[in-house]
Amino acid sequence: MNEALEVLDHVRLNFSPSGLLALNVTIAFIMFGVALDIKWHHFKDVIMKPKSALTGVVSQFILLPAVTFAFILVLHPTPTVALGMILIASCPGGNISNFMSAMAKGNVALSVSLTAIATLAATFMTPLNFALWGKLYLKYYNAAGAGNYLVPIEIDFLQMVQTVVILLGIPVILGLFFSQYFPRLTKKIKKPIRQLSIVIFIGFVIILLSANFSNFIRFIHIVFLIVLIHNALALGTGFSFSSLLRLPRIDRRTITIETGIQNSGLALVLMFNPKIFPPELELGGMTVIAAWWGVWHIISGLALSGLWSKKPLYQPAVR
């Protein structure tokens, strides 16, 4: 298994500086569009009825990284694949989770609230989780004698925070500002922007796939099962935890989606930032895992949302 995964470290995705800039702009635009749906009363609702929101935050930022770490200990992949999985699990919810929650007949208000909270929390929790679990894994990996990782990865925590603030924090604040002070304009533009955001994001994934098609064809059999199980664990974590706490079914659907749909685009931006990960490091395992996750979570999320859209939230009473 490890011999096959080690091949990934030498893979270089075709991702030019201009492509990285385009991805940065895309993520910022998407988060601006998401923030147009966020109102200050969402935060008030969370404070007044915090159980579901707290469940979602704990599921996403505490349980998912821990479950990911446990899966890694069982799988025992190469360090770059493991760190790629940890970084994915440390990112906030994905860009299309609100759309999927609506499609699944979930609690859209809760989804938007969790997006707002997770996006703001990610400025601190994403770097913190990655540094915590990543260093713990590297310590375990070396102690287990499974191999020597010759070039240890040192994370520039402040640089990661800075990147996340620029990509998520600023666009969300701008979106909140528009929503608060220009309600008429916001009402006109938010639907087209949201639709355009989804199209742009999916288009970017297609472009990334086409530019690296030969690499994906060669290595998809190596990462497909890993990403499938990891994503299933993420979705299962959200559903199991919210079910354990006896939340309403409508909230369970939303928390499941919010936990299982991760912002893989942000993970890629962080991976390609030379101030965080020096370019001389061979991090092909991280980038391939993140890139395929970006494809797979769209497939799994839409499939699950489509299934739930056909199932009633409540069973009719038997007479």
Automatic annotation (TrEMBL):
Superkingdom of this protein's organism: Bacteria
Pfam hit, one: SBF
Compartment annotation: Membrane
GO CC annotation: membrane
TM stretches of this protein: 20-40, 52-75, 81-101, 108-132, 157-181, 193-213, 219-245
Membrane topology: Multi-pass membrane protein
Keywords annotated in UniProt: Membrane, Transmembrane, Transmembrane helix
PANTHER family according to UniProt: P3 PROTEIN-RELATED, SODIUM-BILE ACID COTRANSPORTER
Protein's recorded name: Bile acid:sodium symporter family protein
Species of origin: Mariniphaga sediminis
Lineage: Bacteria, Pseudomonadati, Bacteroidota, Bacteroidia, Marinilabiliales
